[in-house]
Specification:
EC number: 6.3.3.2
Mean pLDDT: 97
Radius of gyration: 15 Å
Protein name: 5-formyltetrahydrofolate cyclo-ligase
Largest sheet: 7 strands, mixed
CATH topology: Rossmann fold
Bound molecules: the ligand Nc1nc2c(c(=O)[nH]1)N(C=O)[C@@H](CNc1ccc(C(=O)N[C@@H](CCC(=O)O)C(=O)O)cc1)CN2, adenosine-5'-triphosphate
Structural class: alpha/beta
Number of strands: 12
Order of helices and strands: HHHEHEEEEEEEHEEEE
Strand order of the largest sheet: 3-2-1-6-9-11-12
Helix content: 10-25%
Strand content: 15-25%
Low-confidence stretches: none
Number of helices: 5
Organism: Tolypothrix bouteillei VB521301
Family: Belongs to the 5-formyltetrahydrofolate cyclo-ligase family.
Cofactor: Mg(2+)
Distance between the termini: 27 Å
CATH architecture: 3-Layer(aba) Sandwich
């Protein structure tokens, strides 16, 4: 199947989950992350605000002993800002929640870990997103390419093999509601 068809069918499957199932699976993903050694040693973590029933990581953000960063889509790039619960948010492009443009931006050298939202991931760590290429472009730039990345995905969308384009770079690990796996 091509990326477009796969994306459509997996998004449909994700949207068909009940809210109770979505919450339960999201909680399990948060617990699997919390128990991992890579998470334990990460102080500054880039994450995302759940959209279209993506795994909801908001429980993690209540841990204010860490610094959390969230993206704003500007042109075809992602700009990262510090954010903590109770800070203001805005609805940005695509209807996704974003930090305020006034929030401090993050210097890439500070970042220890990137939690990457995925429509699907495969057993080699390749990722399918919404098709905007935002994370592909981010992770191909010099200041980000060596950062540890963990794809966040529900188990039903963790599949054997995705179609791979020349610009796709594998993630270092994936986390689902049933497993946390580092590839390297
Ligand atoms: N929660 C969350 N925030 C995120 C991302 C994400 O995957 N999840 N992104 C990750 O990159 C960026 C937003 N990327 C997006 C890219 C495309 C569409 C979108 O709705 N696209 C249209 C048409 C796309 C096309 O041309 O094929 C659509 O799907 O209808 C949404 C978000 C930044 N913030
Ligand atoms: N490093 C890059 N530099 C410039 N353009 C890129 C780069 N990587 C990907 N793109 C462009 O981004 C587009 C989206 O690619 P793809 O369908 O693989 O997105 P995706 O990984 O599903 O989306 P996203 O990263 O937004 O979640 C492609 O048209 C591709 O040409």
């Amino acid at each position: 199947m091509k990326k477009t068809e796969l994306r459509r069918s997996l998004l449909k499957k994700r949207q068909s989950m009940s809210v109770a199932q979505w919450k339960q699976k999201s909680d399990r993903i948060c617990q699997n992350l919390i128990q991992s050694s890579i998470f334990a040693r990460s102080k500054t973590i880039l994450a995302y605000f759940s959209f279209r029933q993506e795994p909801d990581l908001s429980f993690l953000f209540t841990d204010t002993s860490r610094c959390w960063g969230f993206p704003r889509c500007i042109d075809n790039r992602l700009i990262w800002h510090y954010w903590m619960p109770d800070d203001p948010v805005k609805t940005g492009n695509y209807g996704i929640i974003e930090p305020s443009p006034n929030a401090s931006t993050i210097n890439p050298v500070e970042v220890d870990l990137i939690l990457v939202p995925c429509v699907a991931c495969d057993y080699q760590g390749y990722r399918l997103g919404y098709g905007g290429g935002y994370y592909d472009r981010l992770l191909s730039s010099a200041e980000w390419e060596n950062k540890p990345t963990i794809g966040i995905v529900f188990e039903f969308a963790y599949i054997f093999q995705l179609p791979v384009d020349p610009w796709d770079k594998p993630l270092q690990g994936i986390c689902t509601e049933t497993e946390m796996k580092m590839f390297l």
